[in-house]
Recover the amino acids of this structure.
């Protein structure tokens, strides 16, 4: 739950950075930046809502968080194939850990429909 909120905060910060780059003229692809900012904010909102559902013990929060971890892990693998960025390793490990934790017996038992 906490990791999903931290990921959401990171996404919001990166979206803000995209807006700053657009305003300062460092980015000229306005449409691309706006799409990425809006997409990032939508993902962040979904992660926060899913974390809240998990906190309340509802199973509906597991699927969006698991899906995000799979997408994030796949992106980290693609980055690792292109470069040897240490941050990509951290993201990959985080994604795997969170995904596995979502599937553990205590989490599944806690997140039953209430």
């Amino acid at each position: 739950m906490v990791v999903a909120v931290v990921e959401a905060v990171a996404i919001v910060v990166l979206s803000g950075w995209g807006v700053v780059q657009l305003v300062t003229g460092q980015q000229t692809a306005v449409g691309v930046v706006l799409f990425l900012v809006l997409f990032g904010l939508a993902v962040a909102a979904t992660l926060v809502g899913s974390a809240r559902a998990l906190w309340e013990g509802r199973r509906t929060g597991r699927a969006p968080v698991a899906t995000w971890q799979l997408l994030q892990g796949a992106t980290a693998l693609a980055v690792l194939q292109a470069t040897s960025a240490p941050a990509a390793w951290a993201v990959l490990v985080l994604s795997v850990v969170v995904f596995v934790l979502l599937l553990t017996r205590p989490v599944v038992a806690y997140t039953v429909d209430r």
Q: What stands out?
A: The first helix runs from residue 2 to 23. The chain is about 80% helix and 0% strand. The radius of gyration is 16 Å. Residues 76 and 82 are 10 Å apart (CA to CA).
